[in-house]
Amino acid sequence: MSSPLIKLNSGESIPAIGTWQSKPNDVARAVEAALSNGYRHSDCAWTYGNEREVGEGLRASGVPRSEVFITSKLWGTCHTRVEECLDQTISYVAMNANGNHPVFPTRPNGNRDIDESRELKDTWKDMEATKGRNIGKVKSIGVSNSPLLNDEVAAEVPDNYSLKTPDVLLGYPLAKGMVVLPKSVTLVRIEVNFIGASGTYSKLTAEDVAKLDGVAAGGASLRLLVTPPWGVDLGFDTGPSQLVKM
């Protein structure tokens, strides 16, 4: 079974099912298992400290690098050094550098350290310019977000298709043309997540998707935020009932 693809506005196609953050020393084994089970997308980040292990897992799997889509992030202190940050990521994934990135600095109040002197639109222009200069380094650029559902509606939908609730939660974003990144280091779950997501998204009807969309509209969705906090206004309620901390 192969991963469904999503066509990006850059013209590239991104595998819609990928792997996500795991604990150090678990990443390489999880990535190797995921690629062996059909995954072709790995999500890493400087803040996760897992870029080097993603590269180790890729090589151990034997899957050609050209078949794998690797996503990483531009860190908040690198907004004036876009290409430098990109080159560091490529170096770590390719295992051309020793060790992992350092733990990210925080401010005295516990918030993450970010460069607030730069307008995001200017950083985005630099990202566009970097992509334009480096054919072969960057396939596409974008932003990410992670809404979660926590509602009885998600448990009702599977009854129509003899599915499990986790399958629906993985298939739902795929049905909306989004990339889903289930997190697991358990070999069986890695395989089950891929099969569940791949087999579910095409079964969900427009009515099913509309029902699930209504969960967020009704305020019952959870927003996934990484701690420590960013220390900036996110533009929505971040009360305790709205957060899932990672």
Description:
The protein has 246 residues and is α/β, with parallel strands linked by helices. It is 36% helix and 9% strand. It contains 8 helices and 7 strands. The strands form 3 sheets. Strands 5-6-7 form a 3-stranded mixed beta sheet. The chain has a two-stranded antiparallel ribbon with strand order 1-2. Helix 2 links the parallel strand 3 and strand 4. Residues 97-103 and 238-246 have low confidence and may be disordered. This is NADP-dependent oxidoreductase domain-containing protein.
- Class by SSE composition: alpha/beta
* Top-tier CATH class: Alpha Beta
Give the number of DSSP strands. Answer: 7
Could you describe the largest sheet, including whether it forms a barrel? 3 strands, mixed
Tally of discrete structural domains: 1
What is the strand content? Answer: 5-15%
- As residue ranges, the low-confidence spans are 97-103, 238-246
Order of helices and strands: EEHEHEHHEHHHHEE
Second CATH tier, the architecture: Alpha-Beta Barrel
Tell me the span between the first and last alpha carbons: 31 Å
Q: Total number of helical segments?
A: 8
Overall pLDDT confidence? 78
CATH superfamily: NADP-dependent oxidoreductase domain
CATH-derived topology: TIM Barrel
Classify the helix fraction into a percent range: 25-40%
Oligomer: single chain
Shape: globular
Major sheet strand order: 5-6-7
Radius of gyration: 19 Å
Protein name: NADP-dependent oxidoreductase domain-containing protein
Active site: 48 (proton donor)
Site (Lowers pKa of active site Tyr): 73
Pfam families: Aldo_ket_red
